[in-house]
Specification:
single chain, mainly alpha, 78% helix, elongated
Length: 73
């Protein structure tokens, strides 16, 4: 996932990420992955696992959209 923005930076001038952007996105991916793992091994029913996964996906996408374009500004 982190290679896509790096490759885009090589192909176009419109993509301009700094080191802090890569660090934040890496942190976001790590937290997202750990939350899915915690839901998978920590919850007992499929419905709870599915709900936790949907919640993690929605939170990830909302934070990503806010950081990208200021969704709530």
């Amino acid at each position: 996932m982190l290679l896509a923005p790096a490759a885009a930076m090589l192909l176009t001038k419109e993509m301009n990420w700094g080191l802090e952007d890569f660090a934040v996105f890496g942190l976001m991916l790590t937290v997202f992955s750990l939350s899915i793992e915690a839901a998978w091994y920590g919850l007992d029913t499929r419905l709870k696992r599915f709900g936790a996964a949907i919640f993690a996906i929605l939170v990830f996408l909302i934070v990503w959209a806010e950081l990208a374009v200021g969704l709530f500004d």
